[in-house]
Amino acid sequence: MNKYLTSEDRSNNLHNDNFHLYRAACFALSFLFALIYLSLFVNYVCSFYGKIGVTTASSLLNNGMSVLIIGGLTVAFLFSAIKLIEYKSDFIYKYRWIIGISVAMLAVVFKVSGSSLGMWSIMLPENAGTPIWGIPRSLRSDEFSVGTLFQLSQSHNDYAPISEILRGDITDVRMVYGAACWSVISLFRPVLWGYLVFGFESGLAFAWSMKLCIMVLVSFDCAFLMIKSKPLSLLFSILLCFSPLIQWWGTGEVVLYGQALVLLLDKTLFTRKRSTRVIAIVAIAWLCGCYIMLMYPAWMVPFFYIFALMGVFRAIDYCRILKSGEYRSVLAWSISDTLTSIFCLLVSAGLVFFAFFQSSEAMASVVNTVYPGARFETGGSGLPELFSNALSLFYAFDTPLVSNECEIATILCFFPLGTLASLSCIIKKRDWHLIALLVLQLFFLLFAFVGFPSFLSRITLMYNVPVLRLLFPIGYLELLLFLISVKKAKEFQEANSQISSLLVLLVIGICLSSVFQIYILLSAKYLVARKLYLLMLILLCAVSCLLFSAFILGKNCIGLFVAFAICFGVIPGCCINPIQIGAAPLTETELASLVDQFADKDDYSVKWVVDGSWTVANLCAAYGAPVINSTNAYPDLARWNSIDDNNENEYAYNRYAHIIANVFTPSTSFNSTQDDLFTVNLTEDNLRQLNVKYVLSSRDLTEFSSDQLRITQLGSANGFVLYEITY
């Protein structure tokens, strides 16, 4: 062997050594971020369970070795993921759907969900049970004390479309309540299918786990259509699906259905098989119904623009292929395809119309309420939360000072880096895809920061969109623009031996974005400033710069991108919602047994009232009791008008409302304390008029007994006593 290496060989060896050192630095910084983050989260969990006095938390979180254990697991996981992706990426890419669905099915079998129903272990005295990871979130009250309880209530109603349990009156649960039921509308709500097929606990796991797994897969495939890079598409999918915004809201169906529509349109246009096209057309018609049935225009409208634009991209590319003479690579569109599409869309539209017609009375009631009623937005209030997207990573173990976590949670997108980077790409090379996406982004930003005239808001449908809800679509577009620009920068670098100016912009932009967020952090506008938080943001900035520059310069750093996604995507996302097995804190309670003894499943004419608590009122309804003060998703005006003289207080109760009822008060009164809550004081005469037989209360009601009224104690459970009233 020649002992004397040429200068070129020595340079290559030095380059390789430096790159290995570079990779090691990226891995070390990613690991350090993960270790610091998980250490803070573990301390928060231990403090949480210590404050509430629950001693049944996982032993993993109750000793001083927990940080070391989690650190070891983290480094093993990161190392395994990097190697697996680097050496088996083709295998994983080929079988990604089989792997993803298998993981989701296992989660359903073992009844794994992200529900915060563990809060009932805290809210009900003498009730036990905690998640195996994380903590239940009190902020998720709409989930664990409303939505999840509605689904459990339906299990006592045999999943019928009309319930006499909720509201303690005849109630349409199809449209407004969004509960699982055997009805046409459930055809367009696949998230609820698990309840109908598997029952409550497995259905809850299906609604959480299956939705998340499929959303990751769909997001990856849809991003790949736009970005044309597997690692960047994976990064997009991870940062989107595990973002604080989606995890805090516990949602994501709008991007799931919208992105699936784009993928199916692509399959429809670029297939060579007639049967595949027909199946895709049928699926598109069905998914259009699913999208409409989301019934949340604040996100549906802006995302419609995004996904419609993506669909236009695919349609134009298809037309170009046909025009270029390469039509043999695709199936030409025919009259039969047009007729099939029209037929399927008409069938889907007919079913949607039928579902609306069935629930027309309930929908009309909602439209005429004081809250939420009809909204008309013109924008212009500003959206400063866009500039603090990285701060959302800390909300898992610290609380914002000015708002709740859901309202200001964002997607990690380094705004406005994507917008600036796309402008730089457009200057270098006209890319009409980037131009169209950028114009749409500027359209949203103009609405948020400047506002539209009333007529423009109406014709664009943006009057349905509160400015704060634009955090989601703007964050989605910003992340997409950012990663497309990174891919373009790599292409520029491959075509030019010099370092791309876009690379410099990306690195500088990430640093400036992080500095701006550090400034916000220090100002204590959103969080209590801590030195560790600053260190985490600095690490985030450093890793971002290293990884993006390495990728753009053409290095083999797929594994590093996976580590980046895990550290700054999966780990913070997995710390927001708990990992809950089954639903024991909700279903296996003493209160459930007590209510079950006296709730007559064959006769709902006898009503229940829960004294002093709207959450426990919903809980009793979930156990099958017809509770009149369970959450009214649409108002029972006939009931409240009957005890309200001249309907003087209709403003208070004509709304979507949680209801606090106080029994045996001297006089009847209604008081609206917030948009979705009112308090009603019920006299003895009111209870008699409303045919109330059972009252659940945490106080002694026997003192109100008289010759005309007998109050009998039937039993007690979890700090509450059930009374029977005889008039």
Helix run count:
28
Instruction: Please estimate the helix content.
Output: 55-70%
Distance between the termini: 106 Å
User: Could you tell me the radius of gyration in angstroms?
Assistant: 28 Å
Q: How much of the sequence is in beta strands? A: 5-15%
Q: Structural class of the helices, strands and pairings?
A: alpha+beta
Mean pLDDT: 84
The residue ranges in which pLDDT falls below 50 over 5 or more consecutive positions are 1-5, 7-15, 55-63
Number of strands: 11
Strand order of the largest sheet: 5-9-11-10
Largest β-sheet summary: 4 strands, mixed
Which assembly state applies to the chains in this document?
single chain
Shape call: globular
Highlighted features:
727 residues; alpha+beta; 4-stranded mixed beta sheet; 3-stranded mixed beta sheet; 28 helices; 58% helix; globular
Account of the 3D structure:
About 45% of the residues are buried. The chain is an alpha+beta fold and about 725 residues long. A hairpin with a 2-residue loop joins strand 10 and strand 11. The chain contains 28 helices and eleven strands. The longest helix has about 45 residues, at about 5-50. The chain has a four-stranded mixed beta sheet with strand order 5-9-11-10. Strands 6-8-7 form a three-stranded mixed beta sheet. It has helices at about 5-50, 65-95, 95-110, 120-125, 140-155, 195-200, 200-225, 230-240, 245-250, 255-270, 275-290, 295-325, 335-360, 360-365, 405-410, 415-430, 430-450, 455-460, 470-495, 500-520, 530-550, 560-575, 585, 590-600, 615-620, 635-640, 650-655, 685-690, and strands at about 110-115, 160-165, 170, 580, 605-610, 660-665, 670-675, 675-680, 690-695, 710-715, 720-725.
